[in-house]
Amino acid sequence: MTNVKHLVLVMVAGCAVASCQSHAGTASGQQGGSAGAAPSERATAKPIDACSMLSPQDISGLLGVTVQGTSTGKDPQMGDCSWENPATMESISLQISNPGTARNNTLPPPEAGFPDPSKPGPDGMRLLGGGQVEFAAGNRVNTVQVAVLKLSSDQANSAAIDLARKISPQVPT
Questions:
Q1: d(CA 169, CA 173)
Q2: Secondary structure tally for the chain: helices H, strands E
Q3: How far is CA 124 from CA 4, 65, 162, in A?
Q4: Cβ distance 106 to 77 under 8 Å?
Q5: What's this model's pTM, rounded to 2 decimal places?
Q6: In terms of domain of life, where is this protein from (predicted)?
Q7: Euclidean distance between CA atoms 54 and 166, whole angstroms
Q8: Which of 9, 144, 148, 173 is most enclosed, with most CB atoms within 10 A?
Q9: What is the pLDDT of residues 29-42, one digit of tens each?
Q10: What are the pLDDT digits (tens) for 114-160?
Q11: Rounded Cα distance, 70 and 59, in Å
Q12: Angle of helix 56-63 relative to helix 153-167, nearest 10 degrees?
């Protein structure tokens, strides 16, 4: 039961971190990368299909079953997808953030005044714990989390890093 509580705590903390960063921008709340775009441009932007960024084999290899991804995003400039094994409640989650949140494909420094629980990862990634990795691609801050209880923390982090490397070239700018 302790592992489940730890997993839930890490997922909540990770979502809070990702949410804060995906909305951080200028004082007006607008992102630098989209502030100049006309409203009609943003309305007609092709939605990001985050669920298509990973293959069924990528998912089934970690979750043990083939499941369809579920997108809950409404903003066409952002994307998200989650895959869940209904028998075990284990999951893989992907979030593609706002354009311009990772200028020059570099993650911004952690927000001043807040604790930084992350650890440096490969290729400029940040390990957020619990199999969650933050990475820059498409000039965006993105996260992927592998929440599979049979994996150790290091194995979950490695799996998330592998997925981030597969996702990165597909993230639009």
A1: 10
A2: 4, 6
A3: 29, 31, 14
A4: no
A5: 0.75
A6: Bacteria
A7: 7
A8: 144
A9: 334 444 444 444 44
A10: 999 999 999 999 999 999 999 999 999 999 999 999 999 999 999 99
A11: 13
A12: 180
Q: What is the pLDDT of residues 153-168, one digit of tens each?
A: 999 999 999 999 999 9
Give me 65's structure tokens: 């079953």
104: its two tokens: 């020059």
As beta bridge partners, residue 20 has none
- Calculate the CA 38 to chain-centre distance: 27
How far, in Å, CA of 161 to CA of 41, rounded? 33
Separation CA 45–CA 42 (nearest Å) = 5
Largest pairwise CA distance in the chain: 50
Q: Give the domain ranges of the chain.
A: 50-109+117-170
Tell me the DSSP string of 78-123: -EEEEEE-TTT--EEEEEE--TTSSGGG-PPPPPTTS----EE-GG
**Residue 138 main-chain phi, psi, to 5 deg:** 65, 30
pLDDT given at position 25: 38
156: its two tokens: 């979950």
Give dist(CA 45, CA 64) in Å, integer: 35
Q: CB of 94 within 8 A of CB of 74?
A: no
In this structure, the number of other CB atoms found within 10 A of the CB of residue 168 comes to: 18
| CB of 13 closer than 8 Å to CB of 137 | no
Q: Which two tokens stand for residue 101?
A: 């949140």
- Specify the pairing of strand 119-120 against strand 79-84: unpaired
